Amino acid sequence: MHKSLNFLVATIFFALSAPELLAASFQKPVELGDHVFKSIKLNQFKLYDSRFINKSDIEYFNAKKLTFFKKNSSKSEVHKIRQTQQSNILKFPLRRSTNLLAAKKSFEKARVAASKAGVKWESAKFKGVQLENQRRKYGIESADLFVTFTNGKIHYVIKIKNCLKLKRGWILSGKLHWDGKGK
């Protein structure tokens, strides 16, 4: 009963501080990892969604890409890229909805898989992140993020592909994947 009460108090505290977390700018991958962990631990997809790629992120990415191509391509290629970007911006709301739905399903699936593996969320603790497949394209960093946490003495891992560092910091653009027990 004591752990349940602590979890309830933590959930209420987190809900009251959520506006600050929603507006946070995650300049380090570990901040995004902690955010993802908290959203899963508290079963708050809306919190996860707050770091999911949005229209302003796409506009920022497009601007960086266009700047790159203006320096390295012909005017006709730049014109084609601009047209493609404009078309993609118009299609973005539907794409985001579709991708967000897939992300929500993966969020729920990862939570269920973790619970089946024995994770007791009220006592789970964030441990850190590891980056893999780090890359830089058009001046934008991206990587796959492995969120590690413990429950008791057991380490667990959740993987998120294609995280990006844009103007508002590190963001999510893909689904969660339950990796299970870590090493």
Structure notes:
With 183 residues, this protein is an alpha+beta fold. It contains five helices and five strands, in the order H-H-H-H-H-E-E-E-E-E. The two termini are 31 Å apart. Strands 1, 2, 3, 4 and 5 form a five-stranded antiparallel β-sheet that branches. Mean pLDDT is 88; it is low at 13-22.
Gyration radius (Cα, Å) is 18 Å
Largest sheet: 5 strands, antiparallel
Distance N terminus to C terminus? 31 Å
- The total of helices stands at 5
Percentage beta strand: 25-35%
Secondary structure class reads alpha+beta
The number of distinct β-strands equals: 5
The helix/strand series, from N terminus to C terminus, equals HHHHHEEEEE
Low-confidence stretches: 13-22
Portion of residues within helices: 40-55%
What integer is the average pLDDT? Answer: 88
Shape: elongated
Summary of the model, kept short:
With 183 residues, the protein is an alpha+beta fold.
Features:
183 residues; alpha+beta; five-stranded antiparallel β-sheet; 5 helices; 54% helix
Question: What is the topology?
Answer:
Blueprint: H1 2-22, H2 29-41, H3 45-49, H4 55-72, H5 75-116, E1 125-137, E2 140-151, E3 154-166, E4 169-171, E5 176-181
Antiparallel strand pairs: 1-2, 2-3, 3-4, 3-5
Helix pairs in contact: 4-5
